[in-house]
Design brief:
The protein is mostly helical and about 70 residues long. The protein has one domain (about 5-65): Orthogonal Bundle (Protein Yjbj, Chain: A), CATH 1.10.1470. It has five helices and no strands. The longest helix has 14 residues, at about 50-65. The radius of gyration is 10 Å and the shape is globular.
């Protein structure tokens, strides 16, 4: 899955995202709505990661997710 597919498959992927990043709330996930940049921002906010770290985590998740 690539970053564009994340948005298209958001309903299916949302549960796996919450498993990966448990600090994200349902409201966060509704706000993100599959947008990778929004996901990165929420990861930065909730986990205190740098922009680059969050981007790398999202890219890795998209690469390994079998959604």
């Amino acid at each position: 899955m690539n970053r564009d597919q994340l948005e298209g498959n958001w309903k299916q992927v949302k549960g796996k995202v919450q498993e990966q990043w448990g600090k994200l709330t349902n409201d966060d996930l509704d706000t993100i709505n599959g947008r990778a940049e929004q996901l990165e921002g929420k990861i930065q906010e909730r986990y205190g990661k740098t922009k680059e770290e969050a981007k790398n985590e999202v890219d890795s998740f998209c690469t390994t997710c079998s959604c």
